[in-house]
Amino acid sequence: MYFFDISERKGSFEVSAHTMSVGSDILVVLTGGRIHIGAVAIAQPRPSIKDAKKISSTSSVFTYVGHKEDVVAKAMSEELSKELNKKVVVAAGIHWDGLKKKDIELIIEICGKITKRIIAEVSKE
After folding, report:
1. pTM: predicted TM-score of the whole model, two decimal places
2. 19, 27 in Cβ contact below 8 A?
3. Which structural domain, as residue segments, surrounds residue 17?
4. pLDDT confidence band for 125 (50 / 70 / 90)
5. Taking Cα atoms as reference points, which of 34, 38, 14, 12 lies closest to residue 91?
């Protein structure tokens, strides 16, 4: 079993991923700003529809009313599942008041960097 934390900061935004193995599966708690749970995404690897020799991923997402973390939770869970060939759960809670479109784009970029770092860390195991 492993547990590790990864944080990325850009400008005034910092997002953290608390990652742990659950057997052969992965659980990620993604937080930034006011910590809470806004969305949960689950993903599992499967053969690609276009090329059965490649791994892809299928996901399901639950988003609490009024929350928008589904975008980052879905993207992260699918990418981790596909690249690591593991079942993945991402619980995301990211909130700052008064975000502008460019702020949201920056936060999505930060989450993408965190995803790549998680893949690199888990691949070492």
Report:
1. 0.94
2. yes
3. 3-115
4. confident
5. 38
